[in-house]
Amino acid sequence: MEIIPIIEKDELATLLGGDEFGNISCSTRLKIEKLETVFEKLVEPSLYHQNTGIDSVEKGTVHLEEGPEFKSPKLSKMLKGCDDIICYIATLGDGIEGEIKRLMGKKHMAEAYILDAMASVATDNMVATFHRRMKDEYKNQGKQVTLCFSPGYCDWPITEQKKLFNLLDSQDVDVELNDSCLMTPRKSISGVFGIQSDYENGKTPYNPCWDCNKTDCPARRAPEREKEKV
Ligand code: SF4
């Protein structure tokens, strides 16, 4: 699927330690403007996705119709009642990574840091755009999608990344896993989300953060007001 990643400026500012883009320093803004041209020249975005049927979900494990089992109580609870999952891998390609290394080698640490942050925001944006498109597509079919979940996120062990990669046709994915289950190019995101055909209209898909007491978790995505809708 073709998705052009967008660098959301306020998200970038947050990642760089600020609150909003309008408040970051003039010199940082100038660096970002220059790096945007570099980014656009080097980015090679690609996103691969695949549907897989869910056989059953029990005892903290998602059993797929074909292939592996995913072990994560929180993922399992989120996928309860789903018929299928969509597995995906999104990447910016290796051009940006090469440029970050080149800048570091030249001791342009500020530029390297900013480009790294821009790439992180852009990768997140690719996945968010993909998720939104799928949400709309399935809504038209009378279905709803769950939130996204990635190996290494929450209680889903990073080692399960191997299972996810084995599930996808690796010929279509220009992303590799090392022995520590980290991806190359580094600016890549893999994950899954569920598809539900039988759901209560208007009910927000389950979010595991609603039930979690880790209020300082950096990955938390749980506006408390959503909890009231359950
Ligand atoms: S707050 Fe953090 S640990 Fe708790 S469910 Fe959400 S992502 Fe997982």
CATH first level: Alpha Beta
Strand content of the residues, in percent? Answer: 15-25%
How much helicity do the residues have? 25-40%
The CATH architecture comes to 3-Layer(aba) Sandwich
Shape: globular
**CA(first)-CA(last) distance:** 33 Å
* Mean pLDDT figure: 90
List the secondary-structure elements in sequence, H or E: HHEEEHEHHEHEEEH
| Gyration radius, in Å | 19 Å
Low-pLDDT runs of 5+ residues are 225-230
How many domain modules?
1
Secondary structure tally, helices: 7
Bound molecules: iron/sulfur cluster
| Category from helices, strands and their pairing | alpha+beta
What is the strand tally?
8
> Order of strands in the sheet with the most strands?
3-2-1-4-8-5
- Here the CATH topology equals NADH Oxidase
Sheet having the most strands: 6 strands, antiparallel
Descriptive report:
The radius of gyration is 19 Å and the shape is globular. It has seven helices and eight strands; from the N terminus they run ααβββαβααβαβββα. The chain has a single domain (9-227), classed as NADH Oxidase, CATH 3.40.109. The chain has helices at 9-15, 26-42, 73-79, 95-105, 109-140, 161-167, 224-227; strands at 46-58, 61-64, 69-71, 84-91, 144-145, 176-177, 183-184, 188-196. 30% of the residues are buried. The strands form two sheets. The protein has a six-stranded antiparallel β-sheet. The chain is α+β, with helices and mostly antiparallel strands. The two termini are 33 Å apart. The site of iron/sulfur cluster has 9 residues, from loops.
